[in-house]
Amino acid sequence: MNKLQKMGGIAALYAGAAYVVGIIGFLGVVDVSSVVDPVQQVALMVDNQAFLHILHLIVYQVWAIFLVVLTLALYERLKAGSPGIMQTATAIGVIWATLVIASGMIYNIGMDTVVSLYGSDPTQAGTVWLTINTVFTGIGGGNEIVGGIWIMLLSWAAFRVGELPKALNYLGMLIGVAGILSALPGLSEVGLIFGLGQIVWFIWLGIAMLRSNKSAAAS
Question: What is the spatial distance between Cα 159 and Cα 181, in angstroms, rounded to a whole number?
Fold first, then answer.
């Protein structure tokens, strides 16, 4: 169990770091979302295909694999005190990871398709990308209800069991509510609180898990 807790702590740190990498990469290096015209979006992808492919691999597919590790580690840690909540949270965590992996694959395969099409028919490439991007956004973060429920349930279980710092659990419940609210009409911008808050939550969680694991090993 101590080994799984260590792996979970590392996974949480990766999850937080991946968000930082994503912010830098998607907003600071290649900001496709700032371009309105889908044809121009494809043109931007043509110039940055390899970079975007690797970035989505890091922030989506690999991130989701680490999320599964973290979900299982937290289940082992909290199941004794809140078995029902943790069974539900674990199922939701796996669902979230599946959605994130799927969205990353859709983006990368879809990008490869429209980049190949762009040379012969830029307009059609833009039209195809508009459809692909809609599916990608719907699965991978148009709203954050699944992730919000996962974090809120975990934080509530940890609070009931007395595990993890109380301030971290309060933060998690706040972030979880923000993620859930982002699914409501007119409140999509609340998802920004969820995204930025996760950076702090994941890194804090990873440090807490590694510290407690080290203390348990010493005992």
Answer: 22
3-state secondary structure of 37: coil
Residue count of the chain, please give it. 219
Q: Read off the pLDDT of residues 13-49 as tens digits, 9 standing for 90 and up.
A: 999 999 999 999 999 999 888 899 999 999 999 999 9
Residue carrying structure tokens 């040379």? 119
Q: Which long-range contacts link 34-41 to residues 24+ away (Cβ below 8 Å)?
A: 37/126, 38/126, 38/127, 38/129, 38/130, 38/133, 39/122, 39/123, 39/125, 39/126, 40/126, 41/126, 41/129, 41/133
Q: What is the pLDDT of residues 165-190, one digit of tens each?
A: 999 999 999 999 999 998 888 877 88
Q: How crowded is residue 117: how many other Cβ atoms within 10 Å of its Cβ?
A: 18
Q: Is the pTM of this model over 0.70?
A: yes
Contacts of 194 (CB under 8 A, 6+ apart): 144, 147, 148, 175, 178, 179, 182
186: three-class secondary structure by DSSP: coil
The answer to whether the beta carbons of residues 217 and 198 sit under 8 Å apart is no
